Predict the 3D structure of the following.
Amino acid sequence: AQDKLTILGSVPSLGFPFFVHMLNQIKAEAAAQGVNLIESDGQNSAPKQTADIEAALVQKVNAIVISPLDVNALAPAIEEAVKAGVPVVTIDRRVDGVEGILAHVGADNVKGGEAEAQAMVAAFPNGAKLFHLQGQPGAGPAIDRNKGVHNVLDPLKDKYQIVFEQTANFARAEALSVTEAGLAANGKPDAIICANDDMALGAVEACAARNFTDVKIYGFDALPEALVAVRDGKLAGTVEQFPGEQSRTAVQIAVAYARDKTEPKEKLVLLTPIVIGKDNLDKAERLGETK
Amino acid sequence: MPAEALEPSPSPALLAVEGVTKHFAGVTALSDVSLEVRPGEILGLLGENGAGKSTLLNILSGVMPPSSGRIVFDGVEFNPHNPQDAKRLGIVTIYQELSLIPTLTVAENIFIGRAPLGPLGLVSWRKMEEDSRGIIARVGLDLYPATPVSALSVAEQQLVEIARALSLKSRLIIMDEPTSALTETEVQRLMSIMDRLRRDGVAIMFVTHRLEEASAICDRMTVLRDGRLAGHLDREGGPIKLPKIIEKMVGRAASELYARPTQRDVAGDVRLSVRGLRTMRDPQAPHAIVLEGVNLDLKAGEILGVAGLVGSGRTELARAIFGADRIAAGTIMLDGKPIAPASPADAIALGIGLVPEDRKHQAIFAALGILTNFSIASLGRYSNAAGFMAERREREALASYRKTLSIRMASPEQAIEGLSGGNQQKVILARWLARDPKVLIVDEPTRGVDVGAKAEVHQILVHLAARGIAIMMISSELPEVLAVSDRIVTMRRGRITGEMPGIEATEEKLMELMALDQKQEATQ
Amino acid sequence: MTSTTEQAQRGGINVARLLMSFGPLMFLAVLIVVFTVLKPSFIDPINLFNILRQISITGLIALGMTFVILTAGIDLSVGSLLAFCGMVAAVVAKGGTANTLSLSTTGTQGYGWFAALLAAVVVGAVAGGVQGFAITRLKVPPFVVTLGGLTVFRGLTLTISNGGPISGFDASMRWFGTGLIGPVPVPAIIFAIAAILCHIVLRYTRYGRVVYAVGGNAEAARLSGLRVDRILISVYVIVGFFAGLAAFVLSARLNSSEAVAGIGYELTVISAVVIGGTSLFGGIGSVGGTVVGAALIGVLQNGLQFNNVSSYTQSIVIGLILILAVAFDRWLKSRVRR
Amino acid sequence: MTSTTEQAQRGGINVARLLMSFGPLMFLAVLIVVFTVLKPSFIDPINLFNILRQISITGLIALGMTFVILTAGIDLSVGSLLAFCGMVAAVVAKGGTANTLSLSTTGTQGYGWFAALLAAVVVGAVAGGVQGFAITRLKVPPFVVTLGGLTVFRGLTLTISNGGPISGFDASMRWFGTGLIGPVPVPAIIFAIAAILCHIVLRYTRYGRVVYAVGGNAEAARLSGLRVDRILISVYVIVGFFAGLAAFVLSARLNSSEAVAGIGYELTVISAVVIGGTSLFGGIGSVGGTVVGAALIGVLQNGLQFNNVSSYTQSIVIGLILILAVAFDRWLKSRVRR
Ligand SMILES: Nc1ncnc2c1ncn2[C@@H]1O[C@H](COP(=O)(O)OP(=O)(O)OP(=O)(O)O)[C@@H](O)[C@H]1O
Ligand SMILES: Nc1ncnc2c1ncn2[C@@H]1O[C@H](COP(=O)(O)OP(=O)(O)OP(=O)(O)O)[C@@H](O)[C@H]1O
Ligand SMILES: [Mg+2]
Ligand SMILES: [Mg+2]
């Protein structure tokens, strides 16, 4: 080939295994498509992710595949890219209000939260006493997932009481401490809904320490470690958003357009998040990584 | 004319202190003290270490409030809440512990808070530096005004502080031991400035432990003892006599001060020998004095006095031998063996000790207890093989020095910053006495120490020497040098300029040696 | 330290000597050369202006932080205060409640950019003043007060925004973040003007000199009759003001005020100041140093990203280079002879 | 300050006087009473042991940090170093590569808990020593070196773990995190033993004296014959050791070593030390204070969670109470003085 295409792949934070996986998939697909990839780690900071986009524009990348840290704060940078004529495909989180984005591939976090809560409702048709561990206050996915959970549970307030609702900042160690406090204060709940798998695994440890092994704990992200826990019956379920499929699809769309202006078949590819339980483990994208 | 100024004038008091008392936690520093200062007079404030002099002066300058009592300044009740209040009334203070800002230049320190402004209302650095040259010249300093104060010797800092105080508009100048690090020449200059101020109607309160000075310049004296008023002394025709002052201070008749040593037989071998010693020029301080090939012998059992003017390099010499500064050339031999201490730790291990001149920055651990301050250089002696402190032994040792040096303190745990300056100095001396070194270098060992204790320190030095320790004593106080030295060397500009046996030396002869070099240089 | 300070204080500027005597500046120059050689487009004006825009936010706060650190203080609250001021600015700009999440810029019930800016800087300055007050009157160390501030302001921000961002400002406000004057981004111009003003204040006004004095030795400054408490309060007001200004610019740039903005900024900002040669023990430092420190960090991040260095490796390289830059400075200082 | 230090130095313990003279301790007592009144189950042994277990991780590091801060130093790298040591421990415990994600604890190709513990503390101590070396030999301020360390160690951790956690340790290792001796959690016991040892070292040994002296006045310490550089290096070794120990306990407790562990711990740890009365300018402080500081933070967090206070309000309350606790302490001290 003559000049190889170059694309930017940007994820919000490589401190989280979820996005590490996402970037790895972007990398794999880029290699498969035979394009160069500039990697970008937003480091949990909107200005940093913005700066990375700006740097990529200077380098005249041919396309951008990005999972924006924040849909509002990244809008100007994406707008800039669009203005510069660079095709942009967003993954996972959709940026509203910016005209000219090539496509969005994603599974909505609000929908994921709803699915998570519904799985719990299905497990406890007669009502339940709940703990809810939220993500980092103010962070986009934390807001969306929280919204999803409440969308389902708020109308069912009488049956499903959230007796303990705290943030554990998406972190396992904090989830462990917070759950310990919750257990000491409120006794055993029927279920614990967590905004990510790390927190769910922390909650598992806290319950195990008190021998509360029958508490149903729900996670989010379907990380391999969580899938193992689901298999072993420690987690009741985890929300699968197919980040790998999202990423690969996004790269395909972006490269196709950059190569020869192939318009994507759909501007909006929405994958429906599902809850992975013991019975549908095979649906999980990363089952293969669990040895 | 001067006679008129010296007469106790009927003019009303500028400052009246009435029944002032000050308590610190557990200590009463001042108890019901009253005194007066009139315009155009110099009032000496005297007393032993810890008598409460600095406490009183600090109250007057607004540093701390009194526990009770009244102060009247210029006929109006005066309750300063901070130094600014005092300053506004024209009360200017030179504090006992140097209070310059080390990171700023000499010029900036002099113009602190009142930097001269140029056009546009912006600070004019040029004017500031020019003006400060004149101001420091008044006290006989010739420094590059852009030198950071941290690079100055203690004496120079003291002079800068004096110069700054003198450049402020003042009605009352409070001087807390301004001369403790100065040599004769600077002291003389200061005295003549004080005399001029007195004639201009400025009132001065003056604290010193050099009683000759006090006697020479003060119109009246107020003496404190244990925080109480011990009495007032007036100049009646002639200067106030020393024995009278001492009697008031200590409450008994004075023993003789500065007893000349009887010629002792110093037959010891050469313990420390220095040849061709040169020090490195510090790139950060290119104007600093460096040693220019110093040769020196110090015998066991001998006290070697080192005299010199401010900036003559005495401190540099001490630090070089002690491994505190890097050496560029030369050899040092201890007991005939060459040594090359790369750090104070090395020097100490070899048996050399140094009492530094800058107590506040180089010697005391201000917030730590007296016990730790005392034992820090000899921790090995007061701990067991496992590294645990043997506190009982440590306390006993401190207790014995507390007695011999009459250190006034509340308890061994008390933070050393709560001690009076003189008592701090005694603790530092005890630190080195406890190590029992082979060679002890003391740099201004009695800086801020009162008369009685000074005599004790001298006696201790003589005792140590008698036990075979080699002592090098740097002092700016010539009477002290004359009193205890077996042999005296003089320095100037990093060189040794003369030497004589202590028994033959007189102030005049030493001054001549210290200045001799000056003459030679002038002809070069 | 001394030599640069003196030099800086005498105000003479001699590029070669400056380079030779100030390690971080030399490092900065070397980095720029290296990155340009690796990838010539690095030196593109566009990229350089990008870098300028990127450092302007933390740079502005670092200017204020320089005052604080010169007094031997510290302000850990700046990141949270930035978020708080940004949220206040957004509420004012949008004319009301949070959760006004529409990106529409037309529905202007708001009070306009000027009111938003004013609100941000006033709130910042007042918040700083309150912290300064706690430091001087309650005698709580700056570290503790501003650590408290760090969590308090974040909590307040989340409370007023109810966790979410407030987005969508009108074009006049956005200009402050995204506009250009000629080829130069507006945030960079704001930063440059602020830096020059701060330099003049610190170097050529009595106030500035007094800030140095307080940091050099607070007790001596007090004994010299300076109103130490007022001066201390003033520096926290200044850093708060700059946090507010930075918040306004950031919100304008991102077209959004986020509750999670500025997390971890305290360390970036303090690094810029300290790498620039300002001593955490007070009394020594300069605005010029801070600008260099901020630029060094910005260039490093941009340059590594530009060369597609993996993010993990970036962390390692940035950490090492920061240490080396300062070590090199110390080494130069100990060698330079005048 | 002085009074507590002195008291601590005399070693006498008089509960009433201690309470009266040390603000944070009094605050701690008041908080416990308030939380118990609000919800009596707060005082349940289960919950109290929870709190102890929770503070043991940051508490352990805070012990080491006390040494560092006593010398007027600081270590910002502890959070990253914790993650790094934890990852090393995991690699050793699991006997190899990262991405060994099986939760199975039986397939022990690993080297066992002892090797893991040893690896963690040795790596921590060595990393601390390297930083101490940079501080003393390259003359780079501790803030800069350990800030560099903060990013370097995080980068290294992410590199060896490739961003993911390493999970699933065998029961013998997990015991250190989750086990009980009688009713008492093992981490709490480890913390208690470490605290007592540190107290003894600082209070009763030559080495402890020397640490205070170096922090009190480094120049005077040098002129008193102390090997200041060695002592400085040693305190960074100590804090690194404790970061390693804490990492081991944390991994054991979580049954997982995470690349994102310990983010922001530096501030929590330093707060515990500073709230406990240790001066950031060195020379003043005690282990007892640090333990109280850590407990105060732990009780506050747990108590607020216990009452299900919203996380926004929690931030605000925690920030304010930390400031008030220290302010109260200052006020007490200023009264005792007179
Ligand atoms: N901050 C303080 N805290 C506790 N005690 C103090 C404090 N300052 C002074 N003192 C005590 O007050 C007494 C008087 O001290 P002061 O400094 O006034 O003595 P002084 O006469 O100036 O002595 P010197 O000649 O040694 O300077 C001493 O016993 C001292 O220990
Ligand atoms: N950075 C600097 N710039 C200018 N001069 C300096 C600097 N550093 C040191 N000096 C000068 O070097 C000399 C140091 O001399 P030293 O302290 O050894 O003399 P000394 O005879 O002990 O004097 P003193 O009697 O004052 O103690 C002083 O004159 C001091 O001003
Ligand atoms: Mg005194
Ligand atoms: Mg000297």
